[in-house]
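Lab manual, section 2.4: Encoding a predicted structure.

Procedure: take the sequence of the chain (314 residues), apply the prediction step described in section 2.3, and record the output as C-alpha cells. A sample record is shown.
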Amino acid sequence: MLDTLFPFKRNFFSRNGHKLHYVNEGQGEPVVMVHGNPSWSFYYRNLVTELSQNHQCIVPDHIGCGLSDKPDDAGYDYTLKNRIDDLEALLEHLELRENITLVVHDWGGMIGMGYAARYPERIKRLVILNTGAFHLPESKPFPWPLWICRNTMLGTFLVRGFNAFSSIASYVGVKRRPMSPEVRQAYVSPFNSWANRISTLRFVQDIPLRKGDRNYELVSEIAASLPKFSQVPTLICFGLKDFVFDKHFLAVWCKKMPHATVHEFADCGHYILEDASEEVVPLISEFMKAPICSDAINDEQTVNPDAMSSEGHS
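Recorded output:
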C-alpha cells in the first residue's frame, strides 16, 4: 500500500555513517521540501507529484524519521544544528546551490530557514506552511501536550512506548476531513518501536523556550535573518485550527514577511497538505509559475502586517 501512496524511488545519502533517505523526482529548478515532527517525506507526496513535472523535487527524511536510519543517542545528536547541517550536506552532495524554492512545514521551518540563513543568495522562493522560524510568540502559550512530552517521564513513556505523538497527530492534525486508514498508517508506520520513536521525542525536547536552552541562540539568529528575504517571493498557507502553529505564528510571519501572499484556511489544521491539498497544491503550482520581478515585489505584493487586506486570502 505504501508503494501505491508513495510511488517514488528511494534514494539514500550516507551521512556520518547513517543512511539519510530522500526523494529526488523530476528535472528543472530545485524545490526543496523540508518536513517536521512527527511526519516524514510522505507529507509532500501530492506536491511532489504536481511539481516534479517541471522541477527537481528534493524531499529528505531527517535522521530518525521516515525511511532514514534511526540511531540512538550515542550515534546521533538530535538537535537543530545537526538537522541544518544534514540538509546542507545533502544539497551539497546533489550540487544544488542556486535558484532553490524552499517549502517548509512544522520544524522544517526552523531547519529550512536555518539553511537559508547560511545561504540567502541561494533561495529564489519561499513556501511557508504552518511553521515557525522564530521563538514562541509572546501571545502564544506553550501547548500543555508538548510540555508533557518535553518535560516529563510520562511524556517519554507515551511517545516512545505508545507512539502517542505521531498517532494523535494523525487525528488532530486534520480538521476539514479525517485521514483515511491507509494514509494514517503511512504516517505512523516508520515510528513502529520504542527505538524508532527516538526522533519524535527528541524533536520536542529540543524546543528552546528560554535563554540557556540549547539552540535558543541559534533560533534567535534564524529569526534575525528573516529580513534578508524581504525581496524573495513568498507564499504562506496556514490552517488556522493548528493547535501549535496557529494565528499567533501567522501574525508573526505577516509582520516579518510583509511582502508575502497569504492564504488562511479557517477550517484546516496542522497538516494543511492533507486537509486542503486540492487547494494548496494548485496555489503553490501557480506561485511557481509566476514571473519574478524583484522591482515590483514590495510595490505590488505588500501586505500590511497590522491589518492584512482581504486580497490574497482564503
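Check your result against the sample. Confidence is low (pLDDT under 50) at residues 295-314.
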